[in-house]
Amino acid sequence: MNSSTSSSNRGGRHRRCLLALGVLAASLLLLEIFTRTWLFSASKDFRRFATYDERARRLVESDGFRVALVGNSATDRGVDAAVFREALQHAIGHSIATDLFVADRSRINTWHFILERYFFSQGRQPDLVLLTFYENDLEDGNPIEIGRLAQFFTTVRDWPEVFRLDLPDLNQRAEFLLASVWATFAARERIKERALGALIPGYKPFAEHVNDVNYRHQAAQAGPVRSGSLRALRRLIDRAQQTGVRLCFVAYPTIPSQPYEVNPSVVALIRASGMDYLDLRRTTVLPARLYADEVHLSEQGRPIFSRLLADALAPLLARQGPSLPRQARRRPSTLR
Amino acid sequence: MNYNSYSFWLFYLAVLVLYWRLDHRRQNKLMLVASYVFYGFWDYRFLFLILLSTVIDFIGGLGVAGIELPRRRLRGLGVFLVASALLLCGGVRYAELWQGLLRLDGAQMLSALPTGLRDLAVPIGTAAVALVYGALLPHLYRLPAEHRRRCFLAISMVANLVILGFFKYCDFFIASLHGLLSALGLPVSLSTLGILLPAGISFYTFQAMSYTIDIYRNEVAPTDDFADFALFVCFFPHLVAGPIMRAHTLLPQVVQPRRLQPGAVEEGAVLVGLGLFKKIVIADNMAPIANAVFFRFAEGKWMDMSGAEALAGVYAFAFQIYGDFSGYSSIARGISKWLGFELVQNFRMPYLATSPSDFWRRWHISLSSWLRDYLYIPLGGNRGGARRQYRNLMLTMLLGGLWHGASWTFVAWGFYHGLLLCLFRLFRIPDAVSGVGWIAGARRLGRVVLMFHLTCIGWLLFRADTFSTAWNLAVLVLTRFTVTPMFLSAMATIAFYNLVLFLLEWALDGENRIERLLDAAWPVQGAAYAYVVLMILLFHAGQAYEFIYFQF
Q1: Cβ(A161)–Cβ(A279) under 8 Å?
Q2: Which pLDDT value is given to residue B512?
Q3: What are the residue ranges spanned by the domains of chain A?
Q4: B334-377 residue pLDDT tens
Q5: Mutate which of B516, B537, B539, B546 to test chain A, going by most A C-beta atoms within 10 A?
Q6: pTM for the complete prediction?
């Protein structure tokens, strides 16, 4: 009697458990549908990433000198494409086509796959790729936002390469694989931010403050990542050389009280490969008041930097670009 | 290899799949190897300490029980220990050796081997100790029974405490002595040794010590199977952060064949789910909030902070440490269940405690019961009058504080808890609030709130790096308590993460009544599982923090 009761109890428990797991599976499925249909179209970043393929095609099909700007939020908030285009056009006296391909908190590893996916692998050759970087962005060992890399900037074909060089750790690889097939998993940071932003009053400034204090403390304790390894940079340069794309690396300016150093071996590698390097770190035309924080420029600083970048670029193009007209070789106004 | 890493779960899955295909003896061997591999992921050199402790306590336990190991086995243990020292601490550069092997480069292989006497210091020292101990053993075996029992017990205790003392407290005492001499105007140049702390050393040392003591007290029979005993010491689910298992609970589970109990899979899954939730969702999301407050104090940038914000940081730490440690214990219990083992419950909703005694019956239960049984009661416990009782309490809690870490703030934390225990006894405040109805309920709630805040004062000492940080923070809370938008957001975030867990734990009586969830209607179960899994999935903190108790 007891044994049959307990076995029927176990059977009932088993059935209830299976049904409950069904509820769990249904929740996950619903969330996945929600993420793919609503979140992806509601997110400014995700909407933007979805346009990169088309924009890259349009850029390379444009007339004139075609410049692709690749970077992170510093580039996004620092470069006004229209102002830059106009200033560069004026400086070199040649028609310019330009577009931005940026992803927040991205660095050399992500930039490689952005270029690989939208340009190199499609046989698209812009005349110049400008990569604006800060501090150690070009060095190996920096954190990589895996979800975004998996969902937007890589395909199955890239997996061996990603595992070989970008994600050497087993945990990162597992996360990457999950993020590749599971949009909810890839976008979980964004879902979390949105949910907490909606549920908790004042969450955004609070989270920014907390993250800022933690980041500063950890950075002060550990210092910037200096792995000394430049495999990702070398890979990008090699790939650009194979496809005949010219790269120009731009050291981004920061608030004057917070200068940073660029690893000399980064500069040496860029120069040895014949690619261009512009050092705009210590420019005098961007005082502290033109910055929104230590790195990002304010709305007022944006056009100023855009013009500065164009002016700095013009003599390089005049010196090295055989196809550029003579007037492009004018002396720029602000280049150090 | 943390419980919140993919690599751990791949490792565990591989072990689990193999485990249930093997017979009992092979299961034990697999678990032993798996445990050493698991520990070796931190720093393989420290495996030698576990082996050393294991050999000493194995011989000691048998010696206490009057069982003489044959010479052949003793020699085998000695050789095993010296070989381990050579392999693990002999200065062999394995990466270089491997490269040499791959390239068949003899010179590179030779250069990877130990070069000087310094590299061989540990193996030579081990060989010397093994020879001396081996020579002494026949004499120890011939001692009268009571003398022999005491001698083996003393050797085991001294060896364990020397290992623990050297690796955990040596630098602390050197630094403290240096500070004291400097304060007395005696400038002596004393430099710390920069000793690395082996993960979980306090946990496995206490467990090994309790084995020998229990044999001495005739509460447990020793095992004469070295592999079984080694597995008892290093069983990986609880190796680095407990619960501290006693021999009478764990050893029979090692020695006897195991089977998967009915319901163990479901119960294990609930425990693992709860544990991951507590670690990933609670602890790792509370950590940055607590850190933001304590980092600002450590950097001296707290002058513009409100006392309310500082208090929110202390609350966040209270939930961080609970989520972190109890999460580890829950996962350890869950994965052990899937292997056919039962580990003791280590937490029982500690923030619902109504008194300090009640708190210690709910918080880190395996340590508090260890301290009670092996320290407080042997010191005299409640016997011998109030003054003795207070002395025993203070001593026990001071050492309990020191067990946590080599720092005066931990000692102060222990002292503070000892003081709370003494004060509650002095004023004869009962542990529980009796009665029914809303008045008794309100009184109980008041006691819970009071005890939670008393606990938070303790956490302030526990988390602060220095006394001045703790003092400044406490003064700020008491003198500049202004409710700011930052404080409200912090409290709302803390409530968002912790409230549902609290309800879930309350419904399950901690982890005592997991069957309540398993027997609930499927929509209730489904909602609970969906909540836990979706929270783990979506509210994963950006950064995975190491378990706090690994450092102890």
Answers
A1: no
A2: 84
A3: 10-42, 45-142+225-336, 143-184, 187-224
A4: 999 999 999 999 999 999 999 999 999 999 999 999 999 999 99
A5: B537
A6: 0.87
Nearest-angstrom CA–CA distance, B246 and B226: 17
Topology (CATH level 3) of domain A45-142+225-336: Rossmann fold (3.40.50)
Instruction: Please state the domain extents for chain B.
Output: 6-236+243-255, 265-350+466-551
A58 and B CB contact within 8 Å: no
> Of all residues in chain A, what percent carry a pLDDT higher than 90?
59
Res A336: pLDDT: 29
DSSP codes joined into one string, A87-131: HHHHHHTS-EEEEEEE-TT--HHHHHHHHHHHTGGGT---SEEEE
For range A46-53, the mean pLDDT: 92
Q: Output DSSP code: residue A67.
A: E
From A16's Cα to the closest Cα of chain B, the distance in A is: 5
Count Cβ atoms within 10 A of the Cβ of residue B132 and give its class: 0-12 exposed, 13-18 middle, 19 or more buried: exposed
Q: Is B540 annotated as catalytic? A: no
Closest CA to A283 of A314, A320, A311, A316: A311
pLDDT in tens, B106-131: 888 888 888 777 788 888 999 999 99
Encode pLDDT of B379-391 as tens digits. Answer: 998 888 889 999 9
Length reported for chain B:
552
Higher pLDDT, B93 or B209: B209
The H or E element spanning position B451 is helix B437-463
Contact status, residue B347 vs residue B323, Cβ threshold 8 Å: no
CB contact under 8 A, A23 and B526: yes
Contacts 24+ apart (CB under 8 A), A289-295: A291/A254, A291/A255, A292/A77, A293/A255, A294/A254, A294/A255, A294/A258, A295/A74, A295/A134, A295/A252, A295/A254, A295/A255
